[in-house]
Amino acid sequence: KKTVRDIDVRGKKVLVRCDFNVPQDKEGNITDDRRIVAALPTIKYLLENGAKVILMSHLGRPKEGYEEKYSVKPVAKRLSELLGFEVKLAEDKEVVGENAVRLVSEMKEGEVVLLENVRFIKTETKNDMDFAKKLASLADIFVNDAFGTAHRAHSSTAGVAEFLPAVAGFLIEKEIEIMGKALENPERPFVAILGGAKVSDKINVINNLIEKVDRLIIGGGMAYTFLKAQGFEIGKSLLEEDKIDYAKEMLKKAEEKGVKVYLPVDHVVAKEFSNDAEAMTVDVEIPADYMGLDIGPKTVKLFEEAVLDAKTVIWNGPMGVFEMPKFAVGTKAVAEALSKVNGTTIIGGGDSAAAVEQLGYAEKMTHISTGGGASLEFLEGKVLPGIAALNDK
Ligand code: 3PG
Questions:
Q1: Fewer CB near the terminus (10 Å): N or C of the chain?
Q2: CATH architecture assignment, domain 186-379
Q3: Which positions in this protein are listed as binding substrate (predicted)?
Q4: What are 263-308's pLDDT values in tens digits?
Q5: What separation in Å is there between the alpha carbon of 169 and the centre of ligand 1?
Q6: Is the ipTM of this complex over 0.85?
Q7: Is the CB of 61 under 6 A from ligand 1?
Q8: Is residue 349 scored above 80 in pLDDT?
Q9: Looking at domain 4-172, which of 3.40.50.720, 3.40.50.2300, 3.40.50.300, 3.40.50.1260 is its CATH number?
C-alpha cells in the first residue's frame, strides 16, 4: 500500500481519517489519549511537507445525529496541546457545513482544521456516498490513518476513497507491517495468548492463529468452555454450551497441527461475581457453587514458562475479571511476563493494552495496537475495508 511518503502533498488540502474515538470521564476529560498521540506522526509529516491538514473522526456511537456530548471538542483541545498550536474545530452539526467550508478555504499550509464527529450524519455508518462525496469536496487527497476503524466500511473510511486519490498514513502502515509480519513470517517460537470473556468473540481468531502459532495459551472466561470440553468440572463459571463442540474441534485441530495448547491448571474462584466476594484458589476442577474469576498461581507459572523463550508473542484479552482488582492478578502477571520476553511482543485489545499501560510496561512492548475490533479482524486474517478502499493513486 502507498503511504503519504509516496505522494506530493505540498500545498494540497489533505483530508485525514483518524480514530480519535477515545475514552472520556463524566466531565468529558480524555482519560486515555493513546489514539491521538498515535496519529501525530502522519499529521506532523503532512505539516512539515507543506500540506493543509483536515482531520476527521468518529467519537462514540451517537444514534440520533448531533448530540453535544459526542462533540470532538475535547479532541481539538488535546490535539492543540500536543501540537503546540491551535487546531480549529469546524463546529457544524452537519459536519461539512458552512464553518467547515469557510475554515478550509481560509487555511494556509501548515494549519490544521478538525471536522465534527462524522457519526453526526446518521448514514455515515451505511457508507453513504452522498456524505462521502461531501467530505471529499473539501480536499485534494484522502489519507486513512484510522487503524482502529479500518474494519468499518463507512463513508469516512471507505466511501471517500472513491472520490479522491487515497493512501495510508503511518499508523496504518505500522499496524499492518508489525502484525502482518507476525502472521506471515514470524520468528519462532510464536505464541498467542487469548483471553476475554467469550469464545464466540474469538472463534475466527483461534481458527486462524492455530494455523500459524507454535503455542496457544487460553485464559479468561473463554477458558472454561475449553475446560468443559476436556471433561473438567467448572462449577458456575462462564460457559458457552453451544461452543463446546467448537472447543473440542479446535483442540483436535491444534493436536493435528502440532500446536501446544495451554489451559489453566488452577483458578481463583468465588461464589459471587464481585470484588467483595471471598476468593480462594482451587486446582483444575471448580466446586459446584463457585465460579472461576482469574487464573491461579500455578497457571501463571505455566503461562510464564510458555512465553519465556518466545520470539513472537501476540496477546489479546485479559486472563480474569481485570476490572475487579482482586481478579486482575493473572492479567497483570501475563503483562509482566511479556515485558521480559526477548522478542517481538504485540498487544491488541482494550484490556490487555490497559494492563500493560497501567503497569508501566508499555515501553517494553514492541507494539500496542490502537485497534480493538480492527486488530481482532486483522488477526482473523480478514481484509479490512478501510485499507482495501485505498486506491494508491
Ligand atoms: C473502536 O473503538 O474499536 C473503534 O473506534 C471503532 O468503534 P465502533 O466499534 O463504534 O465502530
A1: C
A2: 3-Layer(aba) Sandwich (3.40)
A3: 19-21, 35, 58-61, 119, 152
A4: 999 999 999 999 999 999 999 999 999 999 999 999 999 999 999 9
A5: 18
A6: yes
A7: yes
A8: no
A9: 3.40.50.1260
**Residues annotated catalytic, as ranges:** 35, 198, 350, 373
Q: What is the pLDDT of residue 358?
A: 86
Same CATH fold assignment for domains 4-172 and 186-379:
yes
Which residues belong to the annotated binding site?
19-21, 35, 58-61, 119, 152, 202, 292, 323, 349-352
152 lines ligand 1 (CB under 6 A): yes
Ligand 1 centre to CA of 197 (Å) is 19
274: how many CB neighbours lie within 10 A of its CB? 14
Q: Counting atoms of ligand 1 from 1, which one is nearest the CA of 374?
A: 3
> How many whole angstroms from 263 Cα to the centroid of ligand 1?
30
Q: Which atom of ligand 1 is nearest to the CA of 373?
A: 3
Prediction pTM value: 0.93
